[in-house]
Every structure is written in structure tokens, then in C-alpha cells.
Amino acid sequence: MRGLTERVARHQRTMGPFLVIAVLLGLLGLPLAVWLDLRTLSERLLRLQASETSRIIDDMRGYYASDVVGRVLATHGEVTTSHEYRKIPGAIPIPATLSIELGKLISGHDGTVKYRFVSDMPFKGRERHQLDGFELGAISQLRAAPDQPVVEVAGSILDRTVRVATPVVMKEVCVTCHNTHPDSPKTDWKVGDVRGIQEISVSQSLGSNLLAFKY
To answer: What pTM was estimated for this model as a whole?
Structure first.
């Protein structure tokens, strides 16, 4: 019995340093494993962002080809601009309508990027924009301080959404159109006024990104 105890003791004394070394090597390897996982995750996010950007550009190019160039080529008379361009042969969308239509097109996909071009004062006869609390607050804040984008980060531990709102500022040509148009809800616009906001939201599921970890 005594011999067995001595052998166990010697075994423990022999294995002890190896266990300590193994633990130390494991601890030293943790930063490397974390770095490798973060690099894998970053590459995945970059590929996702690149894919979304490519898809948005494709949508814009397709829309321009069909709703601008296509309509111009199809007409044999004068080309005009209108927010009701679909009802007028040879008409193409005004800038605001172009932005709204692109927003619907871009956001219609089940992607991570959404785009909205909205105002609390749409033209008469147009469908009113459904604005949430963030958008109403952003319009108010940007009219007071147009140089300060409004940012909101929301979500849970498994998914996050970042929303950024920037102002739609009235230019001279915009003021001339809005102040004379019969459907305009406001006719005393000035250059530099904030007409509404354009909003970009990016959603990212942290839960799905956990699958990218390898180490």
C-alpha cells in the first residue's frame, strides 16, 4: 500500500509541472484564438456589407434604366419632371420622388440595410409617411441643428440596429418649386430649411455571427 502511495505521489509530482505548463500555454493561446475569431467575424461582416452595397447599386442602376432613361427614350416629345411621373408620358421623377422610390426599392429586400426619405409635410394628395418616434424626433432636432446627425442604437443582446438620420436641406431650385406648386403644404420655404430627413438603418444579428467563431 505504501509503495502504491509513493508511486501516485511521484506521478503527481511529475505531471504537476506539465499541467501547469499546459494551463499557461492555454492562457497564452487565448488572445490568439480571440484574434482569429474576431478576424473571421470582421471578414464576414465586410463581405456582408460589400454584398449589400453591391445590391443597392444594382437596384439604383436598374431603377434609373427603367424609370428615367427608358421613359426618356420612349417619348417623342418634350421631357418633363413630376412627382406623378408614372401618369405622364415622357415624365421622369423629381429628386424627392426619386429618393422615395429608391427607398422603397432598397428597403423591399430582406437585407441588413434600409433607406427612407420622409417628411412630416408631404404634398397634398400623397400618402402620408408613417413616422415613428425616432423619425419625428430627428426632424425636430435637425431643424434646430442641421449639422448634427441623429443616431439611435437599439436592439437586444442578440441583434442590434443602428439608425442614422440626416437632414434634407432645401436648395434654391427646391424652394422655387415648393413655393409655387399648388399641392405644396408650405409656400414660404427658404434656402437652408430642413424639408425632412433621409434615414439609413443597418441591422446586424449578433446571434447569427456567433456561428462564425471557430476557435
So the answer is: 0.63
